Amino acid sequence: MTLRVAILISGSGSNMEALVRSMTGDHPARPVLVVSNVPGAGGLDRAARLGVPTATVDHRAFDSRAAFETALQDILTKARPDLICLAGFMRILTPTFVKRWPGQILNIHPSLLPKYPGLHTHARALEAGDTEHGATVHEVTPVLDDGPILGQIRLPILGSDTPETLAKRLLPLEHDLYARVLRRVAAGDRTRLDLSPEAKPR
Questions:
Q1: Which class would CATH give 1-101?
Q2: What are the structural domain ranges in the chain?
Q3: Can you tell me the mean pLDDT for 152-167?
Q4: Measured between alpha carbons, how far is 61 from 25 in angstroms, rounded to an integer?
Q5: Mean pLDDT of 65-75
Q6: Percent of the chain beyond pLDDT 90?
Q7: What is the pLDDT of residue 1?
Q8: CATH topology for 108-202?
Q9: 27 an active-site residue?
Q10: Per the residue annotation, which of 27, 59, 109, 138 is the catalytic one?
């Protein structure tokens, strides 16, 4: 059985593109929809060029978070995904929404959770004097950035790093980690995957 994957984005969609490109050949999943909450987000064009259907649910068009999530739920229900991947989706989903998709929503977060949930993770790691940083793929639960960890990748922080250089060095590692974890989850394996920067690409 090939699982159906919907991907939620807000911006350029680089993680989304990496996921879509990974779902080829004998991969146990296929992308069926990319949804953005931002009209004109660059990731929508990327998805269209990759042949994936797209949709937009502009959160600013709704007078409440519940109304926005109802519209999002309607679009997802029509696409019938087995898994939902958050890939730079900059909206916090309510517990009500998350509970409709138990164990079916994955997210990638740019820190070594449980460190630094929320925003500005690169700056926070530098301000704390950390010697390493990384990214985490986790199952989404009603508590922000607190679900079971499915995979992490680490990289050393350099003395010359800024939040911008750290983000740039981490991004390709995020792409690789998320694609690896998605393949494992789609195949029924939710054991934790830990990678170092020296891990060979897929």
A1: alpha beta
A2: 1-101, 108-202
A3: 97
A4: 39
A5: 98
A6: 96
A7: 87
A8: Rossmann fold (3.40.50)
A9: no
A10: 109
